[in-house]
């Protein structure tokens, strides 16, 4: 296997998000989020799971910080729950919510771990959705910027890296068109509005953060997925190029080039929101770094029956079972192909086509079936190998001049994996949800050794 050779000063960390780990659903004045509501609706989440308790980190974060310190992590990416800080999403501030994040960040700093803070990881305040339409309305962008200013006003003296939004594509597409994520809408107008208004919210928030803290580093985390044609047929190649616009360029192009990608944007003209003259200037040139969340690639086919775009991603080959190897290809428990070369392809493309921005890989990891053995260990060799392969290609990208500065494993902890509930385990630390007991998996121990080795060099 390719050796892992990372540039000097490269940060190694792990990531989580508020709704997936905190629990404390109405503790200390927190308002409900769209995920609190959605996960309690019948049939929305597998096994009827919800995030009411999750990893219980609202009550105890110190246990996990001790683990991070033991592993030697340089950095930890966490998200702030908007309704914990502003229960109605706008106006009134819940100081106790801010106190919690202040304590958490102080404890991280005391442990020598740099906090990377995401402001929106999908848990929109329910009131903002119900009364104001959330990001589906233009004012959602302004509410988000106001909220960002509140958080940065309190924590900006101790956090240097801010991530405005996590995966706006997933939030817009699954939340507003597919309907399988909160808020559960199925409306193409809402989908495109949520897309544009998130980008606008990002740009407005970035400006507010900079005004408060000129030295702050502001980024956004995008789920970038290479879209490859399922066959060499011209129709499939065209479908793949369009899928690339739909998932990757819909965000990269406005952020780096100041316009939406054609022909995708044109095909959707019926559903498009109003884009005001200044919007693209607000959105572009707003980044100090780009966060890349990478898991797998998509193989795309032309599909006559899909309206407008006429494409469909190939699903798991019939021969493969989730978590297995089929025809020489390995799949994770999510049914996602293990494809480290895709990360190299993406990173190189950012250098070639988007001006080589500073990049942090803000999520990368895999779900596998983990068991705690009688000796109290979790032998997750597949995850260790997944992480090692992706770190190796990250180092290779740095050697050809990609400005990649850090890497966060998704995830520090097994957690609430959205519609899948708790049965998809992504952690390098195993969580027994009944007892809240933590067990560092073999992949976590290995990651700790890697960090120690890097420090010696
Ligand atoms: C990403 C999300 C993250 C987690 C991983 C598996 O899309 O940002 O919260 O669910 O996938």
Give structural notes.
- With 457 residues, the protein is α/β, with parallel strands linked by helices.
- It has a single domain (11-456), classed as Glycosidases (TIM Barrel, Alpha-Beta Barrel), CATH 3.20.20.80.
- It contains 15 helices and 15 strands.
- It has an eight-stranded parallel β-barrel, surrounded by five helices.
- Strand 14 and strand 15 (437-440) form a beta hairpin.
- It is globular.
- The relative contact order is 0.14.
- The chain binds beta-D-fucopyranose.
- The site of beta-D-fucopyranose (FCB) has 12 residues, from loops.
User: What is the highest CATH level, the class?
Assistant: Alpha Beta
Give the number of helices.
15
Mean pLDDT: 96
Bound molecules: beta-D-fucopyranose
Estimated radius of gyration: 21 Å
Low-confidence stretches: none
Element-level helix/strand string: EHHHEHHEHHEHHEEHHHEEEEEHEHEEEH
Shape: globular
CATH topology annotation: TIM Barrel
Q: In CATH, what is the homologous superfamily?
A: Glycosidases
Share in helix: 25-40%
Q: Tell me the domain tally.
A: 1
How much of the polypeptide forms β-strand, as a percent range? 15-25%
